[in-house]
Design goal:
This protein is an all-alpha fold. The chain has 4 helices and no strands. It has a domain of 26 residues.
Length: 159
């Protein structure tokens, strides 16, 4: 006796299999949670990268060249865009930047001098002068020493 499969029987079978599938999926999730280093949350779907139109154009041309090489064709001649000339800083612009930096550092030094002078206690004695080492100073330390010595000497009036 041949059995005929009706739509009702097929839909009931599908529902039964879906119930079994959901039960098995739940068990798999529980087992994965037991593994070390796994998180209970599923990872969110990764969004695709967004490339600019120029980047997509470069990728397209590169892929076309690769396929042309595979097929043995000559690569299509790419028209290079004219490059912009390198920008240069004028002497006047550089001088303006240097002047602004000097002004900024002068105000910073003045503020540091004010805060240092107000923070000191007025003592009757001065600290003893440091002895000069046998080895001459070099580099920045020598420049600082010279500028400090020049600042401490009173300016002589021009005759």
């Amino acid at each position: 006796m041949a059995r005929t499969l009706t739509d009702e029987i097929i839909s009931a079978a599908i529902e039964g299999y879906e119930v079994q599938k959901s039960r098995i999926d739940g068990q798999i999730t529980e087992l994965r949670a037991m593994l070390p280093g796994s998180s209970n949350e599923s990872k969110p779907a990764r969004k695709g990268r967004r490339f600019s139109a120029a980047a997509r154009q470069r990728m397209k041309e590169a892929q076309q060249r690769r396929w042309a090489k595979v097929r043995g064709e000559s690569a299509p001649a790419a028209v290079p865009e004219p490059s912009k000339p390198k920008r240069r800083l004028s002497k006047a612009g550089r001088a303006a930047i240097v002047a602004a930096l000097k002004k900024r550092w002068a105000t910073k030094r003045a503020e540091a001098g004010k805060s240092a002078s107000t923070g000191r206690r007025s003592a009757g004695k001065k600290a003893p002068a440091k002895r000069a080492s046998a080895k001459p100073m070099q580099g920045r330390a020598a420049k600082k020493e010279k500028s400090a010595a020049a600042a401490s000497q009173p300016a002589t009036p021009a005759v």
